[in-house]
Amino acid sequence: MNVSPTPSPFLTGQFLLAMPGIGDPRFERAVIAMCAHDAAGALGIGIGAVVDGLTLHDVLAQFEIATDGVPAAPVHFGGPVEPRRGFVVHSTDWSGQDTVDVAGRWALSGTVDVLRAIAEDRGPARWIVALGYAGWGEGQLDGEMTRHGWFNVEGDEALLYDTDADDRWHRAFSAAGIDPRMLTPSAGSA
């Protein structure tokens, strides 16, 4: 007898997409890579917007890490919590002292060792650098998911690494079979 696993109520390894009219300008058209979600709370890294005028070279320079051969990749707005704290969402082919595996889909590191590894061409093959994160306390995200505001989709490597930040929101809705132009900025009532 085959018993299929019960789907998890948690969103680790998925993407959260902000619905039009979410009500918080910091999250308009947000795409958040959910890195941890359980009964105690949730943490995600925003991948749908970049910080204007800031590149990986700027971040490396702050740590006095050489930028030779390192692409001047954009730095993403990871979220409003601890906006000066850096994170790297990356492929699972590299692991450092604080790396967290995210449902086998990607990994998350938050210490300078991942930046050094990237700069020395011995780090993960694919990565996104972000400042800040989005965080939810116990039960907070679960409550938000029952109201108008967020839509979740499966984690997709192509969306994460092969799509420009400005295109991720539209592409993620389209991949879910939804034309985001048809979404309304408020929830209906019955």
From TrEMBL:
One of its GO terms (cellular component) is cytosol. InterPro entries: AlgH-like. Pfam families: DUF179. PANTHER family: UNCHARACTERIZED PROTEIN YQGE, UPF0301 PROTEIN YQGE. Belongs to the UPF0301 (AlgH) family. This is UPF0301 protein COC42_15520. The lineage of its organism: Bacteria, Pseudomonadati, Pseudomonadota, Alphaproteobacteria, Sphingomonadales.
